[in-house]
Amino acid sequence: MAVARNAVIFGVMKKTVLPRYMILLTVMVLTLLSACRKDPFRADISNIHTQIQITRFEEMLFTADPSEIEVYIPQWKEELGVFFYHYCYILKLGNPDDPAFPDRMRDFVTQRHHYQLYTRTMQVFPDLKELTTELNSAFSYYRYYFPDKEIPQIITYLSGFNQSAITDDSLLAIGLDKYLGAEEPLYRQIGIYSYLTVNMHPLKIASDALSFWAETEFPYNDSVNNLIANMIYRGRLLYFTNAMLPHQPDSLRWGFTASDLAFFSSAEKHMWAYLVQEKLLFNTDRFTIDKFVLEGPFTKDFGRGSPARAAVWIGYRIVSNYMNRNSGLTLEQLMAETDYLKILNQSGYNP
User: What is the pTM of this model?
Assistant: First the structure.
C-alpha cells in the first residue's frame, strides 16, 4: 500500500498549456518581483580583509626524510598543535608522545599505496591558490556576519580516504584525498559509490569546509532529536553556506544537481504532505531520520527518481521562510537559535 500511495503523490502531473502572451507576461512579472525582492545575502565586504594561509601537512609529511622522522615529530606537534593528535588518532597511529610512535609514522609514510595517493593528490592540487582565494572571500563574509568569531587555522592532509575534515576550536582541516574528482579511478578501485563521488571534486571543498565549520561553531541541539529538528538544522547549514559563498550556484553550494533542484521545486508540496500525513516529522527513530537527511542513491519514501537528502532541502525552505518573515533577524541570531520548533512555527511554511 505504501508503494501505491507514493505513486499517487509523486505521479506525473498533467501539464497546462498557456498562450504565448500569458507566458511572456508571467516571466515579466516574476522578473520584476525578483528585482524588487531584497537579497538576504547582500553584504559589503570591501573593507574586510582576511589573510588565510593554508598549511599543507601532506607535503610536510611526505617530503620529510623517513630516516629522520624523530626530528620532525616535535616540530609538527608544536606547529600543528591539536590537529596532529587528531590526525594520528584518525589514522590509528597511536599517541604521538608514545616512544614507539616514530616507527609507526615511518611505516605509514613509506607504504607504497600511501605515497601513490600523495603523488596523485599533488597532481590534482599542485597548489591551492584558487581554494585560498575562495576561503578568504568566504571568511570575509564570515567576519562580516560574525565579527566576534575567530577565523580558524586551515590545514590540508591525506587520510587514506577516511575523513573529509577535522575540526576543533580554531581548527579547520580538509582531507584533499576526498576531493580528487568525481571520475577518480582510485575511488572506483576501493568501491566508493557513485552517488558519493559526484561531490568529491575540487570545487566542492569550499562549501563543504564552511558547512563543517558551521557544524563546529553551531552544534546541533540534541535535546530534541526528531526528523523535523534534523531537517531544520541541516537546512540552516545550507542557508549559512549561501551567506558565506553568495556567488556560487546552489547546485555547487549544496551538492544537488540541476535536476535534483528541479525535482524539489516540482514535488515540494507532495513531499511535505507525505511527511505530515505519515506523521514522520516528529519521529525519533534514527533509521527513519537518516533515510531522509543522509546521502544515498535516492530518498526511498519519495520514489527512486527522487534525490537523496530531499528533506534537508525542505528544511532549507523552512529556514528561508522563517528569515523572510522575520526580516529583523540577523544570520548570527539564526545560527544561535536552538529551538527548531520555533523556527518551524514562525516560518509559516505551507507549500
Answer: 0.85
Q: Is 158 exposed, middle or buried (0-12, 13-18, 19+ CB in 10 A)?
A: buried
**CA pair distance 130, 133, nearest whole angstrom:** 5
Question: What span, in angstroms and rounded, lies between the C-alpha atoms of 201 and 258?
Answer: 17
**How far is residue 102's CA from residue 81's CA, in Å, rounded to a whole number?**
17
For residues 101 and 69, give the distance between their C-alpha atoms in angstroms, rounded to a whole number: 10
Q: pLDDT tens, 35-80?
A: 343 456 678 888 898 899 999 999 999 999 999 999 999 999 999 9
Whether the Cβ atoms of residue 96 and residue 84 lie closer than 8 Å to each other: yes
In the chain, where the domains are located: 54-217, 219-347
User: Which residues are 168's β-sheet partners?
Assistant: 171
Tell how strand 165-168 and strand 153-157 pair up. unpaired
pLDDT tens per residue, range 140-179: 999 999 999 999 999 999 988 888 899 998 999 999 999 9
- Lateral strand order in the sheet of 165-168: 54-56, 153-157, 171-175, 165-168
